[in-house]
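Sequence in, structure out. Go.
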Amino acid sequence: MNNKFKNITYVTVFYTVICLIGCSNIASTSIASNDTSVSDTLYSHFKELFHVGAAINEETILGYDSQSEKIVTTEFNSITPENSLKWMFIQPKPNEFNFSVADKYVQLGLDNNMHIVGHALVWHSQLADFMQDIQNSAEMNAHVQNHVNTVVSRYKGKINAWDVVNEAFNEDGSLRESVFYNQMGEDYIDQVFRWAAKADPDADLIYNDYNVYKPLKRAGILRLVEKLKSNGTKISGVGVQAHWDLNSPSLKEIEQIILDIASVGVPVSFTELDISVLPSPWEMVGAEVSQNFSIFEGDPKMNPYPNGLPDVIQNQLAKRYEDIFKLFVKHKDKISRVTFWGVMDKHSWLNDWPIKGRTNYPLLFDRNYQPKKAYQTVLDLSTTD
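Output:
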């Protein structure tokens, strides 16, 4: 190289080019580096419309993934814990609570003046083993009341919203026969919401579920909202788990979700937004974690992009996010929060569900913590409909 750049003019040109390349790299990574000079971020762009959040994992909460944390504190004004407040982690044994990670999660939100979400108080999955063996209604009621009161009271005035009950409905709109339903009866949801409201009267209380685009399931959820309201039980909104793909549900179906929930007098929270770009076995849509498709493990047809996302799919993903957020802007008066289920592709649960070992690309930040085309497409949207 010294021979190539003997002339001082060439040296000047060389370092000018290097400088330009370096400046370009800095610009491309500024979003992920918590650079305060960034003038527009996801939350600032939509701050007059609704909260924009991300679900964060334990690595981010504990500070082990500083790059992810920087994205969270720069781009979002709301956080949800992926796992750290679920029953099996908070109370693995009767009346033995472990708040070590949950406390750090809440403190992260407080330190950054964020809208903090608690997820999830009562859910049949990821439940402590001892709860599965209870065969006595009075004992079940006592454990659930104790859990709700202990957890919600601990974070009273700190956690802004709770996913109080999660995934309680079947696809036909009937109540799922979970351990809670079987031992506490069909009015258990009302009771749990009452306990949560008593423990923190100021917190927003949300019912959360997936496949809400399906009319029968949505009808069941709407009946629940109307029943709770008629009983004088506090319910602050419906959480829609937006685990969608490039084609389904349709924009018309998504819009109908918003309109129908608004019609019963509560706002919508899109609580778990991600867009899968991979084939879905048997056209499966939703988030039922018990589903297992291990027979497809290692099938290249089910994992078509192991080494990177082709531009054509990258463009489809960007268009899908653009269309969805245009709809959100259109109905901004009916939406309280939009939360991505994860920060970046590498950490997405969709890499291992419903088929383990796949490489998915469902979020706005890639595996190198860089914003994708979909990110810029969303950020370029007008916030007036």
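Check: The longest strand covers residues 115-123. The two ends are 56 Å apart (CA to CA).
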